[in-house]
Amino acid sequence: MVAKYKQILQTLSSRIDGMNPGDALPSEEELSKEFGVSPMTTRRALTILLDAKRIVGIRGKGTFVSQHPVTRTMTLMSFSEAMRSQGRVPNATVLGMSMSPADANTAEILGVPTGTNVYSIRRLRFGDDVPIGVDESLLPADRFPGLLGQDLGGSLYAVLREQYDTAIERATSRITAVTPSPETASLLELGVNTPCLAVHATAKDEHGAIVESTRSQYRGDLYELTVDHHRDELA
């Protein structure tokens, strides 16, 4: 005999196949009544669908059919370019920006002397109006005068390229899994226990000078990174 939660899982999975991304599912209470089971049994089926990224829970709003996850290959493609490559419309909301003298840690990260003026730009990134990630970028202010007066609601890399003749030619990224802070979880409309991908990236120009250092957190349920591996030929 098939376990009750598996029957619910199969029924909901088939139902989701006929729904559109963003469509709402009935509440856990409503589903429990529909299937005549306990909330614990319903929750077990929903947890499997959540883990499989078929659905997404938004705190205070409910459970919805997932958007197709954004898959970004670890190349020099920017967030905006990655969104457009998958048919999504990127945009950003600036959460805060400032200019201040670099402390010793920031100076080391950017490869500038301590006390050098540095921009800090924090943005909430969207794909099709769905919050995907939170970025905080650090850039040397002397190199990009007036940057904070530019329109930063799109691609920062495009602004650097078009307004400052600076192209990113190389980047190094470190990726870890983290639990978001309550503030980040709220911005991304996540439960506080939903994991995020944390990416710390350092971008350089054609001369090897550090252009930008960014710390980002992306939704683990809607964002994934792929890496192509190649075996170096042995001498």
From TrEMBL:
Q: Could you tell me which SUPFAM superfamilies the record lists for this protein? A: Chorismate lyase-like (SSF64288), Winged helix' DNA-binding domain (SSF46785)
| Keyword Plastid tagged | no
Q: What is this protein called?
A: Predicted transcriptional regulator of N-Acetylglucosamine utilization, GntR family
Q: Could you tell me which residue ranges the HTH gntR-type domain spans?
A: 2-68
Tell me the GO molecular function terms. Answer: DNA binding; DNA-binding transcription factor activity
- Keywords noted in UniProt: DNA-binding, Transcription, Transcription regulation
Instruction: From the UniProt record, give one GO term of the biological process aspect.
Output: negative regulation of DNA-templated transcription
Write down the superkingdom of origin: Bacteria
**Entry annotated with the keyword Protein transport:** no
Coiled-coil features, chain-numbered ranges = none
What InterPro entries does its record include? Bact_HTH_transcr_reg, Chorismate_lyase_/UTRA_dom_sf, Tscrpt_reg_HTH_GntR, UTRA, WH-like_DNA-bd_sf, WH_DNA-bd_sf
Source species: Microbacterium esteraromaticum
